[in-house]
Design brief:
mainly alpha, 2 domains, 6 helices, 0% strand, flat
Length: 172
């Protein structure tokens, strides 16, 4: 029993207890969960052959889940979201916020399809405005001016070069 890896022969707790009692596993090397399992044992032993409990699960849906589902069904290529950046809102979050704002403007008179279409249009307009703002910030430079700037910066770098003697670099 101690060398068994099969879930059919005892539980993981009983096999670990057997390993500790036989000396194959020292008390100091016991798993982290072992003490918790002993302090708070389950009401029924978790065995592979125990039938699943007949518990009715509640379906939990939030108000925006339906909106999110429709948005993702109609827009397959949304892009990746950076989960590490809490200050950045994903496209889905922005859409849901727009949807709620437009829904409040309609005051219950518009259909879901109208609100959805208006929210999509609002997002598109916002994206176009952002593109225009970034384009306006960059000053157009002619090609000859860009070449002249690159040439002058290259000359500055060449003037500041230091002559190094590789053979005598460590002789100081």
């Amino acid at each position: 029993m101690a060398g068994s890896r099969l879930e059919r022969i005892g539980t993981i707790y009983s096999r670990t207890t057997g390993l500790i009692k036989s000396g194959a596993l020292s008390w100091d090397d016991r798993p982290l969960w072992y003490d918790i399992y002993e302090a708070f044992p389950p009401q029924e032993e978790p065995r592979f052959d125990r039938p699943a409990p007949n518990i009715k699960l509640k379906k939990i849906f939030y108000k925006e889940d339906e909106i999110r589902a429709v948005f993702h069904r109609n827009n397959k290529y949304i892009g990746a979201a950076n989960m590490f950046n809490n200050h950045y809102k994903s496209l889905t979050q922005k859409f849901i916020e727009k949807y709620h704002v437009i829904e409040d403007q309609y005051k219950g008179e518009g259909t879901k399809e109208q609100i959805y279409a208006d929210a999509i249009e609002s997002l598109k307009r916002e994206k176009e405005n952002q593109k225009e703002a970034t384009v306006e910030e960059v000053e157009p430079i002619s090609l000859s001016t860009a070449f002249k700037e690159a040439k002058s910066s290259q000359k500055n770098v060449q003037e500041t070069k230091i002559n190094l003697d590789v053979k005598n670099i460590f002789k100081d």
